[in-house]
Amino acid sequence: MDSKSNKNCENCDTIAECFKSLSEDELKKITENKVQLKFNKKEVVAKQGSFASHIIFIRKGYLKLYIESEWEAKDLIINIFGPNQLIGLSSLFESNTYQYSVAALVPSELCLFEVNDIKYMIGQNSEFALGILRRSHRSTIHAYNQLYNLTHKQLNGRIASAFLYLSRQVFDSASFEIILSRNELANFTAMSTMSAVRTIKELEKQGIISDKNGIIEIKDFKALENISRFG
Known about the structure:
39% of the residues lie in helices and 23% in strands. It contains 7 helices and 12 strands. The protein is elongated, with a radius of gyration of 19 Å. The mean pLDDT is 90.
């Protein structure tokens, strides 16, 4: 982890949509205590059970949010976040500790905002508050969908749903680098690594996806959607 100068958010080329509702003075106020850091691949950003003192904003890179198991070495990845996303919003309204861990999937550059500064601005600016709630709502909906996928779908349905989510919600592209290792992809779909690899190969054989040098390309969205829906 490397620290970096506290760059002014008003001059930043990436900024969360909800921050755009703040005036110049409000933006300066909320960023007074902001810290900008760089994290290496696999480096832990937030530890499950630790005090949730900051909201995480991703300037560059990708992070995984996961639940650590107390009984086995297998984690459960709940979500993948990319640039311009906020993590840790649940700590604004309920728990003051992280209910999950967060780690970098690739070298990433983050801005950390103090929770109390965000809470203060929520009380001052209703449009900002609504923006925060919308972001929190989207994360909650994804968690519900993820729970359904993992408990109601067969292995091929879980992999299909994961690839569709990565394509549409994380990378916004039919072709993307699979930044998750095979083990992490298994943790994202609640299956063994061997089952994940076997299921991916089966999708390749059917011509639904291609997997070349770590680049996944979805060849047949309709077929993948059908597998996701009925698998």
